[in-house]
Design goal:
The complex is a heterodimer of chains A (about 280) and B (about 150).
Chain A: H1 2-17, E1 34-35, E2 41-42, E3 60-71, E4 74-85, E5 89-100, E6 105-119, E7 129-139, H2 143-147, E8 154-170, E9 173-184, E10 202-214, E11 217-224, E12 237-247, E13 250-262, E14 265-278
Antiparallel strand pairs in A: 1-2, 3-4, 3-14, 4-5, 5-6, 6-7, 7-8, 8-9, 9-10, 10-11, 11-12, 12-13, 13-14
Chain B: H1 2-43, H2 46-63, H3 68-71, H4 76-90, H5 102-106, H6 113-129, H7 134-144
Helix pairs in contact in B: 2-4, 2-6
The chains are: A mainly beta (about 280), B mainly alpha (about 150).
C-alpha cells in the first residue's frame, strides 16, 4: 500500500512538473527497452544506455512499472517510476520489497536514480549510445544486513552503459546489445546492505542481448556480475526474457531468472514478470 | 584379410557420406547466398513492387496530420519518382538515384527526431501493407538509416 502510494506520489509530482506536455511518443516502438529491477530504464536486471520512455529531444516522458520475481526462497516486488527529460536526463524512483521466506520477513529498500545520455542514438548513431547513471540506495530494513556483516545500509552505484541496435543484422532481424560497467558496494543489490568482511565491491560487468522477432516482440538474455562482500557465495544473475510491446503505452516482460546463490541458499531460480506503463 | 576388407569398405562408405554432406552443405549455402544477394530488390517485388510501396507510402504521408505539413508544398510526382529510384538503387536494383541530395532537399525543413521517426513508422506501415516481410523491412531501413544526419535539424 505504502509502495503504491509512493508510485502515485512520484507520478503526481512528475505530472505537476510538466503541466503542458503532451504524450511523448517520438521514439520507435520498443526502442526504450523496459524497466529494470532498480528502477532505471533497461532490460530486467541491467540498466541500459537508453533512457526510459518514448521522449525524444523536445519531449518529456513519464513511465511507471511494477515487477515481481519469485525464486525458491525469496520474492522481490519492485514498483517505481521514471521521468525522461528530452531524452537527455532520466530520473527514477523504485521501492523494493524483498520477502525472505525462511525468516518470514520482508526487507525494504528505496532507490533514487539519475541517468544522463552522453552520446549517440541507439538506432542511428555510428557508435553506440552511451550513458552515465547513478543509483542511490537506502535500505530501510537493515537488521539482517548488519547481522550478516554488512558495513552500511546506504550506498551509491555508478554505471556507464553502451547500447546499440543493429537494423537487420541477424538475417534481417534487429539485434540489440547493451554492455554496462557498474561500480557498486551493494550486497544483493543493496537488500543485504553494502560492503562486508570480504571487501567493498568494485567494478562489475553486465551485458544484455536481444533480437526483435517483429516490431512488438523481443527475446533476449542478460548477465549481471555481482561482488561477494559478505562471503556468502553471492553469485552472478542471469535471465532469458520475452518482452512484448503491443503499443507505446504499455510493455510486458516475462523472464526465467537464474539467481543462483542468495544469502548462502543455492539454486535460486524462477520467474519474473514486469509491467510498464508509458505516458 | 576379411577384417581389412570390412574396414576398407566402412572407410569408403564413411568417405562418401562425408563428401556428400560437405557437398550438400556447400551447395545449400551457395544457393542461399545467391538468393540473398538478390533478395532486397527482388524481395521488394522489383520495379513494380517498389512503385506500389511508394504509392502506399505517399498515401500514408498525406493522411498523417503530423507529417503532411512537410509535404504540403512538395510536388508529389517529383517525390514519387525520386523515392522510387532511391529505393531501387539502395536495394541494388538496376537504377541510379539522380535526384537532389538529402541535405538540399531537407534544408530549412527543421525536421526533429520525433517527426523523422514518425516517417520511419509510416514507411514500416506502408511496407507491411505492401506485404513485405519483417526481415526485408529491416534491411530497407538499414539502407536509409545512415542518411538521418543529412535530413534532420537542418
Amino acid at each position: 500500500m505504502n509502495q503504491l502510494f509512493n508510485v502515485i506520489t512520484t507520478i503526481g509530482v512528475a505530472l505537476l512538473i510538466v503541466p503542458t506536455v503532451c504524450l511523448a511518443n517520438g521514439k520507435i516502438l520498443a526502442t526504450p527497452g523496459v524497466s529494470q529491477v532498480e528502477g532505471s530504464g533497461g532490460g530486467g536486471l541491467v540498466p541500459w544506455a537508453q533512457l526510459a520512455g518514448y521522449a525524444t529531444e523536445d519531449e518529456i516522458a513519464i513511465s511507471a512499472f511494477c515487477t515481481r520475481a519469485t525464486v525458491q526462497d525469496f520474492q522481490l516486488d519492485t514498483c517505481g517510476a521514471q521521468v525522461n527529460f528530452y531524452d537527455r536526463l532520466e530520473l527514477s524512483y523504485a521501492e523494493q520489497n524483498f520477502d525472505v521466506e525462511p525468516l518470514s520477513t520482508t526487507l525494504s529498500q528505496e532507490i533514487f536514480g539519475a541517468k544522463v545520455r552522453l552520446y549517440g542514438d541507439l538506432v542511428y548513431s555510428a557508435w553506440p549510445q552511451l550513458s552515465l547513471g547513478i543509483q542511490y540506495k537506502a535500505l530501510d530494513s537493515d537488521d539482517i544486513a548488519f547481522a550478516l556483516g554488512a558495513h552500511d545500509n546506504k550506498g551509491v552505484d555508478i554505471y556507464l552503459a553502451a547500447s546499440k541496435l543493429h537494423l537487420g543484422a541477424l538475417a534481417g532481424y534487429n539485434l540489440l546489445w547493451n554492455a554496462t560497467l557498474r561500480y557498486t558496494e551493494a550486497n544483493e543489490m543493496g537488500l543485504l546492505g553494502f560492503g562486508g568482511p570480504n571487501g567493498n565491491g568494485g567494478i562489475q560487468g553486465e551485458v544484455s542481448a536481444a533480437v526483435l522477432l517483429n516490431k512488438h516482440l523481443a527475446v533476449g538474455v542478460e548477465y549481471r556480475q555481482k561482488p561477494d562482500n559478505l562471503g556468502l557465495n553471492e553469485s552472478r544473475w542471469r535471465d532469458v526474457f520475452v518482452a512484448w510491446f503491443p503499443n507505446k503505452h504499455v510493455s510486458v516482460t516475462m523472464a526465467y531468472v537464474d539467481l543462483d546463490t542468495i544469502a548462502a541458499l543455492p539454486n535460486q531460480d524462477g520467474w519474473y514478470v514486469s509491467l510498464t506503463g508509458y505516458y | 584379410m576379411s577384417r581389412f576388407t570390412i574396414s576398407s569398405i566402412s572407410n569408403f562408405v564413411t568417405n562418401i557420406v562425408i563428401i556428400l554432406l560437405t557437398f550438400s552443405v556447400f551447395s545449400c549455402s551457395s544457393i542461399k547466398e545467391s538468393a540473398e544477394q538478390q533478395t532486397l530488390y527482388q524481395a521488394l517485388g522489383q520495379q513494380q513492387g517498389i512503385e506500389r510501396l511508394v504509392n502506399i507510402f505517399i498515401k500514408k504521408l498525406g493522411q498523417d496530420k503530423q507529417i503532411f505539413p512537410y509535404f504540403a508544398k512538395a510536388s508529389v510526382s517529383h517525390f514519387r519518382q525520386g523515392f522510387i529510384s532511391h529505393i531501387c538503387e539502395a536495394s541494388d536494383g538496376p537504377c541510379q538515384y539522380e535526384g537532389d541530395n538529402m541535405v538540399d532537399i531537407h534544408t530549412g525543413m527543421n525536421i526533429n527526431e520525433a517527426d523523422f521517426n514518425r516517417v520511419v513508422e509510416l514507411l514500416v506501415l506502408a511496407m507491411e501493407e505492401a506485404g513485405i516481410d519483417y526481415p526485408i523491412q529491416n534491411k530497407v531501413l538499414a539502407k536509409f538509416a545512415p542518411l538521418r544526419g543529412e535530413i534532420i535539424k537542418i
